[in-house]
Every structure is written in C-alpha cells, then in structure tokens.
Amino acid sequence: PRPFEEDLDRLPFPARHLANNALYIRPDTGQKQTTVVTNRGCPFHCIYCLANQVSGTRNRYRSVDNVVAELRECVDRHGIRNFLFRSDLFTQNKAWVIRLCRAILDAGLDIEWACNSRVDTVNAEVLGWMKKAGCWIIAFGVESGDQETLDRIEKKAKVEDAFQAVRLTREAGIKSSVYLLMGLPWETHELIDRQIEFAKQLD
C-alpha cells in the first residue's frame, strides 16, 4: 500500500496518440468516445463496492481547468467529442459540478458526456447545468428497490430517492440508466421478482 495521490492535476493526460481511438465508440451513435477520470474516491461504504479500497474514502477532484484542458486536447487533437466522465461519485460536490459545466460552456467545446451518480446527490439545479454542458445520460447506482436490502448493503439511500432522481433527470432532458444488483446471499425468487417490478416502475 502507498498513499493516495492528493494532487490529481500532477498526473499527465492519457497518451491517446498511442491508441487507435476509433476503436472506442459511443454505443448508441458509433461516434468516437473516450473516458476521462474526473475525480477519485467515495465516502460511502457500500459492502459490495471496491471504491474505498481502490480509490479511498475521500473524494479527490481534479481542478476544473485541468479537466477542461484534457477535454480540449481530445477535441482538438483527436476529434473526440463524446466522453464518459469516470469517477467513483461524480455528483457529490454540486458546486464543483456546476463550475465544470460552466467552464465547458465557456470553452465552447460542444461535447456530449455521460457520468455515474448516486440517487441522493442530484437536484434540479445541478441537472440543469449538466444538461446545458452536454450531459446526455446518467447511470445511477440504485442497486435495489427493497429498503431492507439497501440497508443490509449499507447503501445509505432510500427507495424513494431512486424515483425522485430518475424523475428529476427526465425533467432536465437527460436520459437515465440504473445499476441493479441481483443474487445477493439472502435474496429469494420472490425478492428478485419484486426487483424486476421495481425496475418497470422506474421506467
């Protein structure tokens, strides 16, 4: 084990000139897409997740300027305008997200991007900025529609949070997808059937 890097801006951008970027595409459009790691770490302790071991329990953010510089290099040098903002918890710091969105708009990058989120870390304001800055889909770690299961996996979220997050995302004009867990040790066929019904209710 070694200490986590505190200043993520020190790390160089990926050497994309060494890769065949045309191989990596957005699944719905076939356009070139790349992954940009915007921050590392998560303060939550969900029992199934490796984020704490891999990235630590404190969310460490790159500076907005540093992220925008990498996006600009992708656009100008590689012709990439589609991105997955890869992080353990992208939307924890709403002020940082809004600053990033404003910077993307100010830079005139004309990009589209996706990200991951928790259902209890978005609101109408931040979703509005994300939509303006090019966010087209958010993948939410919902995990289960059963509150007892959420409690047992230490998700620290409520079932109703999922409905609220999906509704707000849809109202902002952003698509949503969800991660759901099945096959936990205590699950029964009945519980899995209820999980399927929950997914349908989320639409």
Topology:
Blueprint: E1 33-37, E2 39-40, H1 51-55, E3 60-61, H2 64-78, E4 82-86, H3 94-106, E5 112-117, H4 124-132, E6 135-143, H5 147-152, H6 159-171, E7 175-180, H7 189-202
Parallel strand pairs: 1-4, 4-5, 5-6, 6-7
Antiparallel strand pairs: 2-3
Structural class: alpha/beta
Distance between the termini: 43 Å
> Would you identify the regions where 5 or more consecutive residues have pLDDT less than 50?
none
In percent terms, what proportion of residues is strand?
15-25%
What is the makeup of the main sheet?
Answer: 5 strands, parallel
Strand order of the largest sheet: 1-4-5-6-7
Shape estimate: globular
Summarize model confidence as the mean pLDDT: 96
List the helices and strands in order: EEHEHEHEHEHHEH
Number of strands: 7
Percent in helix: 25-40%
* Count of alpha/pi helices: 7
Task: Specify Rg, calculated over alpha carbons.
Answer: 18 Å
Descriptive report:
This protein has a five-stranded parallel β-sheet with strand order 1-4-5-6-7. Strands 2-3 form a two-stranded antiparallel ribbon. 28% of the residues are buried. The chain has seven helices and seven strands, in the order E-E-H-E-H-E-H-E-H-E-H-H-E-H. The chain has 203 residues and is an alpha/beta fold. The model has no long low-confidence stretch (mean pLDDT 96). The longest helix is centred in the middle third of the chain and has 15 residues.
